[in-house]
Specification:
Largest sheet: 9 strands, mixed
Radius of gyration: 20 Å
Helix content: 25-40%
CATH superfamily of the largest domain: Ribonuclease E inhibitor RraA/RraA-like
CATH architecture of the largest domain: 3-Layer(bba) Sandwich
Structural class: alpha/beta
Order of helices and strands: EHHEEHEHEEHEEEEEEEHHH
CATH topology of the largest domain: Glucose Oxidase, domain 1
Number of helices: 8
Length: about 220
């Protein structure tokens, strides 16, 4: 078992507040990597989450490191749990979610199933997982890691990476990325979409607004 020192958080309140106004799909117009597999889904509806990754790696039946991680993580952190491919045992349920909410964590992401879904929904706390399971983990204390590099949803996650998520899915913004650059592009895109909606309201065809018609003509396709 391994518990590494906490990584310095680089997510400022300004960046966090601006990211909360942006959808992961907007950044997806340019960025093609860092998006978790769509099998990891939001277990609670109408959520938006931004925070720093607090990483956990744990094996099938052992949840000692999950209990320790939720006790170490700080306000604004997102618990990101690598289950090493296990899809049978739920390492997160009502008590873990309750503890995370009380510590003001931003959310929990599990590359595996969770349990106690009704209680989780009643807590209205952002939780993502691959699904549900009635079989839970136990306190064994054999293996696991905290604050190390993990894999979650097909994406490498480093401690302190910025996580952005909504009902559509999750995006990991690596510390190596210039978040300001991608954020500015996304903000410009959001502003452009407002203008596009106004033009649609005025009766203009979408294909004309986006220049799709022009691209079709340049390809030799004619239409009425």
């Amino acid at each position: 078992m391994k518990v590494m020192p906490r990584k310095k958080r680089e997510l400022t309140e300004d960046i966090k507040n601006r990211l909360l106004k942006i959808d992961p799909a907007t950044i997806g117009h340019w960025l093609q990597f860092g998006f978790m597999n769509s099998r990891i889904k939001a277990m609670v509806n109408n959520i938006k989450v931004v925070g720093s990754a607090f990483t956990v790696k744990t094996t099938s039946i052992d949840s000692v490191m999950v209990h320790k991680a939720v006790s170490l993580a700080r306000e604004g952190d997102i618990l990101v749990i690598d289950r090493n491919g296990d899809e049978k045992y739920a390492c997160v349920g009502e008590i873990i979610v309750y503890a995370a909410k009380k510590r003001n964590l931003a959310g929990i992401i599990v590359d595996g199933p969770i349990t106690d879904i009704q209680s989780v929904r009643e807590l209205n706390f952002p939780v993502y997982s691959t699904g549900l399971s009635p079989v839970t983990t136990r306190l064994v204390g054999n293996t696991g890691e905290i604050n190390t590099t993990i894999q979650c949803g097909g994406v490498t996650v480093e401690p302190g990476d910025t996580i952005l998520g909504d009902d559509n899915g999750l995006l990991v913004l690596s510390k190596d990325l210039n978040i300001q650059e991608w954020l500015l592009k996304a903000e410009e895109k959001e502003a452009m979409e407002k203008i596009m909606k106004d033009k649609i309201d005025q009766g203009l065809p979408l294909a004309s607004i986006t220049k799709a018609d022009q691209l079709l003509r340049e390809s030799g396709i004619t239409f009425e």
